[in-house]
Amino acid sequence: MTSPVTREPAVTVRVFTQRFSSTPRGARLARRLALHQLDRWRLPYGSETSDAVGLLVAELAANAVTHGRVPGRDFELTLSYTPELRLRIDVSDTRGERRPAPVAPGPLDEGGRGLLLVEALATRWAVLDRVPVGKTVRAELDLAARRAVRDVP
Fold first, then answer.
1. What integer pLDDT is reported at residue 16 of this predicted model?
2. Is the pLDDT of residue 88 over 90?
3. What is the pLDDT of residue 138?
4. pTM for this one?
5. Structural contact between residues 89 and 53, judged by C-beta atoms closer than 8 angstroms
6. pLDDT, position 65
7. Radius of gyration for the alpha carbons in the chain, expressed in angstroms and rounded
8. pLDDT in tens, 111-151
9. Contact indicator for 139, 99 with CB cutoff of 8 Å
10. DSSP structure class, residue 89
11. Residue 60's pLDDT is what?
12. DSSP letter at 125?
């Protein structure tokens, strides 16, 4: 007796990885290339997902350049896209001892709101150790959940 074979649909995970100089120019370029890559993956410019990813990459790259910079070392952006399911953003730098944490800024503070933005836009986010040195800040968007919320009348 043979058991029936059930075919699962193939899942393709698309990945984009690039290193950038730890400068404001590198952070801007990371955001622009991320949006360009999303467009190539058929997540068009100006869509809700593209706008959210643009803000997340901009904030995480700016943090890597501002707080995670080690002179002479780059930061790295990795996008992982599983169509209709998940989009993951990883920004890695070489400064492992400075871990980001959201704080409630005072009304007159000029900074400190970036990770609150990440918390609001991402489904989840975390700080991971990077081997051999540094840290990775990961933000994920659950695309199926975002689509379900959008489809509710």
1. 96
2. yes
3. 96
4. 0.84
5. yes
6. 93
7. 17
8. 667 888 899 999 999 999 888 888 999 999 999 876 655 55
9. no
10. E
11. 96
12. E
Sheet bearing 135-142, strands edge to edge: 14-20, 75-82, 86-93, 135-142, 124-129
Residue 117, token pair as written in the block: 């933005």
Q: What is the DSSP string of 28-81?
A: HHHHHHHHHHHHHTT--TTSHHHHHHHHHHHHHHHHHHHHS--TT--EEEEEEE
Average pLDDT of the chain is 86
The token duo for 143 is 């695309």
Contacts 24+ apart (CB under 8 A), 49-56: 49/87, 49/141, 49/143, 49/146, 52/121, 52/141, 53/79, 53/87, 53/89, 53/141, 55/117, 55/121, 56/89, 56/118, 56/121, 56/122, 56/139, 56/141
Altogether, the residues listed in the chain come to a count of 153
Contacts of residue 37, defined as CB under 8 A and 6 or more positions apart, other chains included, come to 16, 79
Which one-letter amino acid corresponds to residue 105? P
